[in-house]
Amino acid sequence: MNNDPSIEFINIRKSYGTNTVLDGLNMTVSAREHVVIIGPSGSGKSTILKLLMTLEKPDSGEIIIDGENLWHPARGGQNSEADPAHLRHMRSKVGMVFQHFNLFPHLRVLQNITEAPVRVLAVPRAEANQHARELLDRVGLADKYNAWPAELSGGQKQRVAIARALALQPRIMLFDEITSALDPEIASQVLQLVLDLARQTDMTMLFVTHQMHFARQVADRVVFFDQGKIVEQGTANQVLENPAQARTREFLSNILMAS
Amino acid sequence: MTWNWTLVWHILPMILRGTVITVEATVLGMLLALLLGLIWAGLLFLPNRFIFWLVRLIIEFIRDTPLLIQLFFCYYVLPEIGVTIPALVTGITVLGINYSAYTAEVYRAGLQNIPVGQWNAAKALNFTPWQTFIRIIVPQALPPIVPAMGNNLIAMFKDTPLLSTITVMEMLNRAMIIGDKSFHYLEPLTLVGVLFLLMSLLASGLIGITQRKLLVRR
Lengths: 259, 218
Ligand SMILES: Nc1ncnc2c1ncn2[C@@H]1O[C@H](COP(=O)(O)OP(=O)(O)OP(=O)(O)O)[C@@H](O)[C@H]1O
Ligand SMILES: [Mg+2]
Fold this sequence. Notes:
The structure holds two protein chains of two kinds.
Chain A: E1 5-16, E2 19-30, E3 34-38, H1 45-52, E4 60-65, E5 68-69, E6 74-75, E7 78-79, H2 84-91, E8 94-97, H3 109-120, H4 125-138, H5 154-166, E9 172-176, H6 184-200, E10 204-208, H7 212-218, E11 221-226, E12 229-234, H8 236-241, H9 246-258
Helix pairs in contact in A: 3-4, 3-5, 4-5, 5-6
Chain B: H1 5-45, H2 49-63, H3 67-77, H4 87-112, H5 116-124, H6 129-159, H7 171-182, H8 186-216
Helix pairs in contact in B: 1-2, 1-4, 1-6, 1-7, 1-8, 2-4, 3-4, 4-6, 5-6, 6-8, 7-8
The structure holds adenosine-5'-triphosphate and magnesium ion.
Magnesium ion (MG) binds at residues 45-46, 176-177 of chain A.
């Protein structure tokens, strides 16, 4: 793996009202690295992904993606405020899959996938359809292109959502607890799909998950997060099997009891 | 007082010409209300405090003043400052603006019912705010609000007789003219009432069908 930084969080602070979620977060993710973020509920895991997707804006600090500053792009030797064009340029590098799928219920499966390539990237409709059919095939839903989202099971919805994110060919993919709304058996099938995907592509990937088995298989690095701070990080083996911090051990044993 | 069928047949064509104007005012007024209301509702969703309060103020102002005064103001006062607009155009515009305050409210409720996840997904897929609004949010928000919009349509329809006060030759105005000339008010007014009833029922039916069509699609 080469070590060009793909994502850098520099001293990121983020609060909601008086609730400080991220308190000076520093974290670097290398290009093509697969990082799994674990931690208790409310610790700020989703917030990290939302910040990368510009669904939230940090109160202070810098986010660098592919060498470009997300909110303060360099212009004429100075850092300026990001304008909509810059944010769209930055968003084109990142894709996201959500816990609750968030498919567009008024569009059929195929159009859920093609709408963004056609409208955002101006891909010709026929070409976008072709690509979408290939992606559906890849996620194991080749025959569902004409279905409405409401006609799909949860697992199928999430597969479509994955295909939809892939259609824009982002270099960075974010997965926020993508199987926690699914039955265990369905969840493991979806995770297997994502695992295959992770092995076949050279995208940088960030996962928030409570599935430790999946984390072990997919992670180049596991980051344990608590109260807006990194408590411990390392390989899956280090963090999940031989955690150095008491807080990590406590969290892992709680997870084990819950599952 | 006896019911005179001969008179009914005699005045029917004239009343029906008024019906055309009533329907025209309703349809065009509602189109304006639907468009303007959507603009208000869209502006209320922008993250801009000034625009938000300005639009709120406009909507409150429209809702808290009588439609009749708005009509009189635009028809009788505006010419004094040099703005003269034909009666029917004035009527349609005032109806449209007036009802936009109510359609805006319906839109707003419809838009607020769209889960935040839809906005997030649209942003993650890099749609522009405008594309998000028009292609993702509005198509989902519309079907559930069809009944409420239908109620507004029928309410506006029943408000069109007010246009007679600014000389628009809609149904009621014609009925009153006939009454004044013939001293028979029973037949023209009954005829107009029945026509309103029939068309309201027809509109309700169509709205119901529209909504069922929209819901069945998913
Ligand atoms: N839009 C918001 N407004 C107010 N508070 C929020 C908002 N989003 C998140 N929070 C708060 O920020 C904190 C971190 O939230 P976040 O969603 O990042 O946690 P998480 O680690 O993903 O938790 P979970 O495992 O439950 O998903 C929580 O205390 C949450 O209540
Ligand atoms: Mg979360």
